[in-house]
Amino acid sequence: MILFEGATFYTSANSLKDLPVHDGKEIAFAGRSNAGKSSAINTLTRRTKLAFTSKTPGRTQQINYFRLNSGHFIVDLPGYGYAKTPIAIRKHWETFLTQYLLTREELIGLVLIIDIRHPLKDLDVQMLELFSSTQKAVHILLTKSDKLSRQQAMVTLRQVKDFLKVNFPAVSVQLFSSSKSIGIDDANGIIQNWID
Ligand code: GDP
């Protein structure tokens, strides 16, 4: 069975007590606002409008669950780093997301979406630091790779790999593009491995 087949919206959560009870595993998707997270989820699930893509960054302020035919779940986390998000809301989310990422037993891995033109910003590194304490899997999609030449994309990929090797040796990374369907099979393969 194809991992991301049959994705449908399942539920939203705004606090720990809202998190659903189920028998599947959860794969969380995180990234800076506007990095291309919704597009990546839509591309991987081949559902053009599953995750809400928007030109207004920072709009999705809840955890969205999508159920897969396999019985597992994609968990779409709110984008971070949008300066205009009011502080009170940001604090609520920081607390909730930290608790979710550090304590959720069903969660088996994190897919971190990074715009290849803005690799490894402070908040991305903070996310890696936070999550690394769980010892769970992390895979980075350097998305919008179609925006760079192949050569430029390879240079950035190399730089990110070098950084990870020193700082987060267990974390993997690949090129991705939702517009040009680059890297879908690789991403599928890696995430399938987590489940197996
Ligand atoms: P999110 O805020 O992280 O969910 O980002 P979105 O998926 O809504 O994407 C933000 C913007 O980047 C939108 O205008 C998308 O059309 C664009 N975008 C997303 N992925 C790609 C990609 O792979 N290539 C290109 N060229 N644009 C993309």
Care to describe what's here?
The protein is α/β, with parallel strands linked by helices. It has one domain (8-195): P-loop containing nucleotide triphosphate hydrolases (Rossmann fold, 3-Layer(aba) Sandwich), CATH 3.40.50. Helix content is 34%, strand content 21%. It has 5 helices and 7 strands. The chain has helices at residues 37-45, 87-103, 122-132, 150-167, 184-195, and strands spanning 8-13, 26-31, 63-67, 73-76, 107-115, 137-143, 172-175. Strands 1-3-4-2-5-6-7 form a 7-stranded mixed sheet, sandwiched between helices. Helix 3 links the parallel strand 5 (107-115) and strand 6 (137-143). Guanosine-5'-diphosphate binds at residues 31, 33-39, 53-55, 57, 79, 143-144, 146-147, 177-179.
Unreliable residue runs: none
β-strand amount: 15-25%
CATH superfamily heading: P-loop containing nucleotide triphosphate hydrolases
- Identify the overall geometry: globular
* Helical coverage, percent range: 25-40%
Number of helices: 5
Number of domains: 1
Per the CATH scheme, the topology name is: Rossmann fold
Write down how many β-strands occur, each being a DSSP E stretch of 2 or more residues. Answer: 7
In whole angstroms, how far apart are the ends?
A: 12 Å
Q: Identify every distinct bound molecule in the structure, by name, code or SMILES.
A: guanosine-5'-diphosphate
Radius of gyration using CA atoms only: 16 Å
User: What summary fits the major beta sheet?
Assistant: 7 strands, mixed
Secondary-structure content class? alpha/beta
Strand order of the largest sheet: 1-3-4-2-5-6-7
